[in-house]
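Quick one, T. Sequence first:
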Amino acid sequence: MAKKIKVLAVAEAAAIISAAWMLVLGVLGKLGLYTNGVEQMMKWHVFFSLSWGGIILGMLEGAVFSFAIVYLFAWVYGKLS
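Structure tokens:
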């Protein structure tokens, strides 16, 4: 018998990784590094900016969207397997 996927754990991991990546991009952007990536993140994410508040809001936005999308995908995957 195959193991069942832990949907909540997978979604939480995706949210944590997304939030961490937003933090890394925000800090790099504040240092003037990786500016093209930071610019794209500011275009794609409504709340992300190079202020500390914008970085935190971007982290929350990325975590929430990642959690929801990955949770849905993992749930469907679990149902189909």
